[in-house]
Amino acid sequence: MRYTLIPQDPNAHLFGVRLEIGTPDPAGQRLSLPAWIPGSYMIRDFARHVVAVDAWSGQAPVHVEKLDKDTWRCEPCAGSLLVRWQVYAWDPSVRAAALDDTGGLCNGSSVFLRALDVDDGPFELLIESPEAPLRGRWRVATTMAADAVDPDGWGRYRAADYEELIDHPIRFGAFTRFGFEVAGVPHEIVLPGAPRVDGDRLCADLAAVCRGHVDLFGELPVERYVFFMNVVGSGYSGLEHRASTVLDVAREALPLPGDPPDREPYLELLGLCSHEYFHLWNIKRIRPAAFVPLDLSREVHTTLLWAFEGLTSYYDDLGLCRTGQLTREQYLERLARVITRVHRGVGRFRQTVLESSFDAWTRFYKQDENAPNAIVSYYAKGALIALALDLTIRQRTDGGRSLDDVMRALWAGYGDGRGVDEQGIESVSGEVTGLDLSAFFDTALRSTRDLDLAGLLRPFGVLLRWRASKAAAGYVPALGVIVDATGELPRIARVYDGGPARAAGIATGDRIVAVDGVHRRGEALDTWLARMPPGEEITLHLLRDDVLRSLAVVPRPAPDDEAELVVEDSCHETAARQRAAWLDGP
Ligand SMILES: [Zn+2]
Fold first, then answer.
1. Is the CB of residue 236 less than 8 Å from the CB of residue 246?
2. What residues form DSSP beta bridges with 498?
3. How does pLDDT run across 119-176, given as a tens digit for each residue?
4. Which residues surround ligand 1, an ion (CB under 5 A)?
5. Which of 69, 356, 450, 571 is deepest in the core (most CB within 10 A)?
């Protein structure tokens, strides 16, 4: 079977796609587009962007009918079948497809209709250049295996099966490439256009990050790897693939020559790259059995996302610490932020990480304003469980074993992609460490009780303390709300259960007109509220829709809900040694 993909009409954001099927299903060939993309657990119905499907058998048109929201059926025909369609591509996120006159990027799950009931590959993919004036100016970058391509990347590629076909994103346009090697394997950074960036620095740092993960697992199962970066105004996100990752990177995060080494946005970027690269092992190859084979037509539930995202989230920053991009203090500060995030919401008492994983489709990926009260993040709590597991193993084996051994055992047992069953992470952890970890996992996974992080960290010479939180990023601890001050009137974005605002009946969406009868401008409001003496009633004047309400609320002293991790210099020598083994790696 052969696909042809062409960035057909960039101004209209249209890709043109063709599929030639030598021997179509005699009952009528059905074609379907995935409803979701691996790594992002939400039904996205990519088929809604498919336009103008037609089909031909030789010179004869073949009737095409729609069967459901993402399936088409071509009527039975004698001989081969050619199906043509266009895809409207104007979703610049990491998980879909976008195209304009500056270039584009597509994930195969957004563009390649899958032929059902016929052989699943092998596939040929012809990537054709757009018309003039773009012809000759654009290039192609993808990690898909190339058969016969020109120096700019246009030509013929191949994929063994559909899952592989859609797991190699394709970048079009004019772009900048930086290259480095890790374990003899070529790695690339592909950035659209020609952004100002210190490429040497980026390559050196990423090479160190990647090498750290390769050393942990002991091998690198790819022939090349690409970091595809979208440069965006603000924010970070990433999606992992088998030999690449697509990242949204805030422009300010890119390093410029002469930058100081520890600029926070840059460290954030390194952390994101570290995370997605770790997925190369942990989820792309070691993966839940529920994803084997992968059904992309509907939600696929697994309770294991706490491990695939949590272990990855634990190792992303720990990797930076072990390779020296983060100092111990910087690492512990980041870890403390994760602890704070998990502990600030009471949602952690209402959902286990197993439930959070299972319901990712409708809860974590469809978060509303009540999320901190109702759900726990399998990323953040999962990372804390990974930390607790690591420290528990180190402590109970006197440093003889660690979570690193669990990761290597998972790699040895499941790296071939056979799939880890729902109890697999727990059993491998027990087997490789020789410990009975059932009580640990019962608490961490099957209960909503807090982990005893302070007790686990102390033998490593790290103290966990709680301090009064400060008003920051819209969080007003005195009221227990998050205020969004970007609009004309400050708006209540979140109300935490158990806080004074909740007790007073303040609701998400309320807009604050005045405090004690005095109108306050947006930016000053949270500092103003933070200065209200605790225990003394104030009146908030709020607009709920178009109704003015006045509610009495009693600010509280800021709760001690901000975690702080402190290295205990005077700790016992054993503790210092254990700490070094944990933070510096083997
Ligand atoms: Zn991830």
1. no
2. none
3. 999 999 999 999 888 888 999 999 999 999 999 999 999 999 999 999 999 999 999 9
4. 309
5. 356
For the whole prediction, is pTM greater than 0.85?
yes
CATH of the domain at 196: 3.30.2010.30
Report yes or no: 414 and 282 within 8 Å, Cβ to Cβ. no
CATH number at residue 503: 2.30.42.10
Do residues 247 and 228 touch, judged by C-beta distance below 8 A?
yes
- Distance in Å, CA 449 to ligand 1 centroid: 24
Look at residue 64 and tell me if it is in a domain.
yes
142 with 33, same domain: the answer is yes
- Spatial contact of 382 and 305, defined as CB atoms under 8 Å apart: yes
Q: How much distance in Å is there from the Cα of 54 to the middle of ligand 1?
A: 38
Query: Contact at 8 Å (CB) between 290 and 331?
Result: no
User: What three-state secondary structure class fits 578?
Assistant: helix
SS3 content of the chain, % helix, strand, coil (to 5): 35, 30, 40
Ligand 1 geometric centre to CA of 383 (Å)? 11
Structure tokens at 497: 């259960």
Tell me if 174 sits within 8 A of 129, measured CB to CB: no
